[in-house]
Design goal:
The complex is a heterodimer of chains A (about 350) and B (about 110).
Chain A (H helix, E strand, L loop, with lengths): L1 E9 L3 H12 L4 E4 L7 H5 L5 E2 L8 E2 H12 L5 E3 L4 E6 L5 E5 L4 E9 L5 E4 L29 E5 L3 H10 L5 E6 L8 H12 L4 E4 L1 E8 L2 E9 L2 E6 L2 E4 L3 E4 L15 E2 L12 E3 L4 E2 L7 H19 L14 H7 L3
Parallel strand pairs in A: 1-2, 1-8, 2-5, 8-19, 10-11, 10-16, 11-12, 18-20
Antiparallel strand pairs in A: 3-4, 6-7, 7-8, 9-17, 13-14, 14-15
Chain B lengths: L1 E6 L5 E6 L5 H7 L19 E4 L4 H4 L4 H7 L9 E3 L12 E4 L6
Parallel strand pairs in B: 1-5
Antiparallel strand pairs in B: 1-2, 3-4, 3-5
Classes of the chains: A alpha/beta (about 350), B alpha+beta (about 110).
């Protein structure tokens, strides 16, 4: 099934969300795709509780509060959202517009694409263990797509958060053996999961070791064991599958392969329309670059407003764009549902 | 001003005059000390400003708080003197502080 929209926005962080507002005022319908499971981008994922002090007219606002307010502000425009997806492909259609595909093969068609992807897409962090890349995809996995892939294996789970604990508990029944390794005996996971894990350790259904993975042993991508640096020195643990859970980091991802000009992993744009080297593809917020660029949320908001003027001309060519204020324009107020 | 010495992984020393109230991470970035990445900008939301505090200074600098301990789980080769430099506030009693940058950041 193909979803049609005027503007496809990649990234549902504060700047992507505010773009919905500006585009909505000019009657452009938006759909947003984000790799996270909720709106807010870095604000939601990295620092929801942290105060922000440089949002105009908000002397202090928490990142999550800012996201909530933006969601409230754009609600009248009823944007579409697709979460938990990474945008993979982008191609220009023969007729006007673009076709965008996700890692789950959903298809979107839009007249304009706006990249508001911040620092890139959040992806599992690769622990800095020497040579780990040789095992990725064969013995080392950063997520569990199908539990069956771990059946009968000697499994090593690394980490102390909810992902590590949840998968320890879920995979213990299917694994041949399971070892959980964490740097310290304290966890940042739900206490209930931690208690369950300790209960399984009591019955020797799994083994919990305090330590850090120092080295992987195996050949041709087939893992045999891992060396754990623990409080009493190095220990070798036999394992054929490893699941490290070291949090998320941001990577530019497939955007790098779309043929756009790049400047140190950022997307250069002009400062009139914030358009990339490809007409019809815009970049706003932390992901773009131009002389004097500041990675501030407020700069992203400004960029969204100017981008909108250019996007409107592409979506409705020939239509005259009348500049109006929300304070005084009855037609804008009607769109906002306030009259 | 408080003097801080950063020892890069290759042994190069960077002696920096730091303003009280700033963080050890900020001064590393300001003075381009190699190996301090500070990906999240000081929000204690990554573990890429990891340093080892010189043992003589460990007690004065103090222990990490719970949130920082959680973040240190993501760092590489964490030791008893490991700290995230964005969480160490420069103050006069830290004059002469020595920190070492690890081999790699997470």
């Amino acid at each position: 099934m193909t979803t049609q929209t005027d503007v496809l926005i990649i990234g549902a962080g504060p700047v992507g969300l505010f773009a919905v507002f500006e585009l909505g005022l000019l009657d452009l319908k938006c759909h947003l795709i984000d790799i996270l499971d909720r709106p807010g981008g870095q604000c939601a994922e990295l620092y929801p509780e942290k105060p922000i002090y440089d949002i105009p007219a908000w002397p202090i606002i928490s990142a999550q509060e800012l996201v909530d307010k933006l969601m409230e502000q754009i609600a009248p425009f009823n944007p579409g959202f697709t979460f938990n997806r990474m945008v993979n492909g982008l191609e220009r259609l023969d007729e006007d517009g673009f076709r965008v595909t996700t890692d789950e093969n959903e298809v979107f068609e839009a007249k304009v694409v706006v990249i508001a992807a911040g620092g890139g897409s959040f992806q599992p962090k690769r622990p800095p263990i020497p040579g780990i890349d040789a095992y990725e995809g064969t013995s080392v996995f950063y997520s569990v797509r199908r539990m069956e892939e771990f059946r009968g294996h000697d499994l090593l789970v690394v980490g102390g958060g909810d992902s590590a604990l949840d998968w320890t508990l879920n995979l213990q029944p299917v694994a041949k053996t399971l070892t959980l390794v964490h740097r310290r005996p304290e966890f940042r996971a739900a206490p209930d999961s931690v208690n369950k894990m300790y209960a399984l350790q009591e019955t020797k259904a799994l083994d919990f070791q305090v330590g850090q993975v120092k080295e992987l042993i195996g050949e041709d991508g087939i893992l045999r064991a891992a060396v754990i640096k623990g409080p009493e020195g190095d220990v070798e643990i036999a394992c054929t599958r490893m699941l490290p859970f070291f949090g998320l980091t941001m990577k530019l991802g497939p955007i790098a392969d779309w043929g756009l000009n790049l400047h140190e992993n950022l997307i250069p744009v002009d400062t009139e329309k914030f358009e990339t080297s490809e007409p019809g593809i815009f970049a706003i917020g932390d992901i773009n670059w131009y002389p004097g660029k500041l990675k501030l949320i407020l700069s992203g908001f400004h960029e969204a407003a100017l981008m909108t003027q250019a996007a409107k001309r592409i979506c409705n060519p020939g239509e005259r764009v009348v500049f109006q204020y929300t304070t005084s324009s009855t037609s804008l107020q009607k769109k906002l549902g306030v009259t | 001003m408080t003097k801080i010495t950063y020892i890069a992984h290759d042994g190069t020393e960077f002696v920096v005059d730091a303003e009280d109230g700033s963080t050890v991470m900020e001064n590393a970035i300001k003075n381009a000390v190699p190996g301090i990445e500070a990906e999240c900008g000081g929000a204690c939301a990554c573990a890429t400003c990891h340093v080892y505090v010189d043992e003589a200074w460990s007690e004065t600098v103090g222990e990490p708080e719970a949130m920082e301990e959680d973040m240190l789980d993501f760092a590489y080769d964490v030791r008893p003197t490991s700290r995230l430099s964005c969480q160490i506030t420069v103050r006069s009693e830290l004059d002469g502080l020595v920190v070492t940058v690890p081999e790699r950041q997470a």
